[in-house]
Amino acid sequence: MAGTLDAVVVVVLNAAQTENVLFGPDGIVSLLKPGGVVLACATVPPDFARDMEARCAAHGVLYLDAPISGGAAKAASGQLSVMASGSDKAFVAAKPVLDAAAETVFTLGDSAGAGSAMKAVNQLLAGVHIATMAEALTFGMTQGVAPEKFVEVISKCAGSSWMLENRAPHIVDGDYTPLSSVNIWPKDLGIVLDIAKSAQFSAPITAVALQQFVAAAGMGLGGEDDAAVAKVYARNAGLKLPGKAS
Amino acid sequence: MSNIAVFGLGAMGYGIAASVLRAGHVTHGFDVVPAQVDRFRTKVVPQERLVRWQARLMRSLSWS
What is the percentage of chain A residues whose pLDDT exceeds 90? Predict the structure, then answer.
């Protein structure tokens, strides 16, 4: 069946869903025009991205390894950062989407994999920073530091992080509406640890952060905002977090 | 104007689909959660062509 789509943007949870969308029964690849492009935005292992690029090429379709960062607000306003790698042709074909959705497009290599590698680096930091924020916020509570004061002061001090400024207010507000869910992190930090292991690179801080997110999921918080990792610390220390949930 | 499909209308995909649409492209949005597809269709683009594509593509795709 000849396709009519110029571009397909795949913004699903993981590698398995990406593969299913592209190559599952009646996969979307068959609905792309020859020379059309897939922009793959999920966080996936670099080897998976390379495999998808090759399989798309076998169907006459281009592939841009295009993990994204920036959060829901920047997605809505078309101001995402894209960590992209792929052929020149893939970049050209993807330009209408990139122009519309991205503020910053990093060109990281001429084949798939490099974009996903950079995304793994970002996810290592993002996941660790969320868990560390939760650890520091709840540690502060044991010392008489109220969560709202924590946010007010630390967000203006050297210990802050983008994640602290973005996520700690969720804890202060007791609002765990999932803008980015706990369940993202066992997956993404798992990818980091898998590829680190393949490289014989030990990433102990990432490993501990991963365990905290697994514990949160085990408490039934997998579908909550990832700031809910603070509830693991609160439970262990007998602390009462702001809001109706404790 | 390009003909573009966005698969996955979660927090990120929804914003991307809306941005692509805003830039003037024919935009088809898909998700395993029907309510998200309805939200995209009714709030962002009440467009007959998209509805036709939606029906056709959803028939042709299966999800795990």
Answer: 91
- Element holding A82 (H helix, E strand): strand A80-84
Residue B60: closest C-alpha in chain A: A26
Topology at the third CATH level for domain A118-237: N-(1-d-carboxylethyl)-l-norvaline Dehydrogenase; domain 2 (1.10.1040)
pLDDT of residue A34: 94
Is B19 an 8 Å CB contact of chain A? Answer: yes
Chain position carrying tokens 């949930």: A245
* All residues at 6 or more sequence positions from A90 whose CB lies less than 8 Å from its CB, including other chains: A37, A62, A63, A64
Q: Find chain A residues with C-beta within 8 A of B8's C-beta.
A: 10-13, 17, 21, 41-42
- Taking the mean position of all CA atoms in its chain, how far away is CA A28? 23
- Max distance between CA atoms of chain A, in angstroms, equals 66
What are the residue boundaries of the structural domains of chain B, listed by start?
3-60
- What fold, for A5-112? Rossmann fold (3.40.50)
What are the pLDDT digits (tens) for A218-241? 999 999 999 999 999 999 999 999
Catalytic residue annotation of A: 119
| Predicted confidence (pLDDT) per residue in B4-58, tens digit | 999 998 889 999 999 999 898 988 888 887 777 777 776 665 444 555 555 555 5
- Min CA distance, A130 vs chain B (Å)? 18
**This prediction's pTM:** 0.89
Inform me whether the C-beta atom of residue B43 falls under 8 Å from chain A C-beta atoms. Answer: no
CB A95 within 8 A of CB A39: no
ipTM of the complex: 0.86
Contact B58/A at CB under 8 A:
no
pLDDT number for residue B35 = 79
- Backbone phi, psi, residue A113, to 5°: 115, -45
Cβ contact B23–A100 (<8 Å) = yes
